[in-house]
Amino acid sequence: MPKRVDHDVRRGEFADALVRSARVRGLHATGFREVAAEAGVSVNLVQYYFPTKEKLLIGGLIHLRALITERLHRKLAAAAGPAAKARVMIEELLPGDEVSTDLYRVHAAYAALALTDEALAAQPQATGPGELHPELIELVRAAQREGTMKPGRDPATVATNLLALTTGLSAYVLAGFHTVEAAKRILDDHFDHGV
C-alpha cells in the first residue's frame, strides 16, 4: 500500500527549508535548487508544491510569519498584565538571540524585496507589523485603563510609535550601531516615561 503524503506538512517542510536557506545564503540567493538541497529532495518535488518562484517565496513568507507569531505568542502567554505584554511584544521584535536575529534578517529581506515585487507586496505578511498593531493598541488601551501606562494618549499613536522605534532599533542592532542591550535600555526609557 502506498504511503499517504500530508501535502500541508510537505509544503511546510519546503517553506521551512526556504527560510533555513535564506538565513544562510540570503533570500536573493535562495531558489528551487537551494530549497531542494536543504530539504534533501528533488527540484521537481519542490516545484510540484510551489510551481513558481513567486509561490515559493510567498509560501516561505507565510511560514516565516507563522514562526515569528508562534514565538511571540509563547512569550506573551508568560507575561502578566497588558503593560508587561506590550513590553514583551515590542522586545520580541528586537533581534536579541540567534533565532530572532535570523528571523529578523529573513523578514527584513522579504520587506526589501516587497518594495519592488508587486505580488509579494500584496501579501499582508510582507507589510511589517500590521497584525501586531491592533493587538498592541488593545494592550496599550488596557494598560492605560489600569494605570500602568500614561493615560490620555491615543493608543493607536502610542502603538505606532513603539513599533516604529523598535523597527529602527532592530536595524541599528543588526548594523552594529547599537547592542541589543542598548536597544532594550532605550525601550526601557521609553516605557519608564509612560510611553
UniProtKB/TrEMBL annotation:
Residues 17-57 form the HTH tetR-type domain. Pfam families: TetR_C_6, TetR_N. Residues 82-193 form the BetI-type transcriptional repressor C-terminal domain. Gene3D superfamilies: Tetracycline Repressor, domain 2 (1.10.357.10). The keyword Transferase does not apply. The keyword DNA-binding applies. PANTHER family: HTH-TYPE TRANSCRIPTIONAL REGULATOR BETI (PTHR30055:SF234), HTH-TYPE TRANSCRIPTIONAL REGULATOR RUTR (PTHR30055). This is TetR/AcrR family transcriptional regulator. It comes from Amycolatopsis minnesotensis.
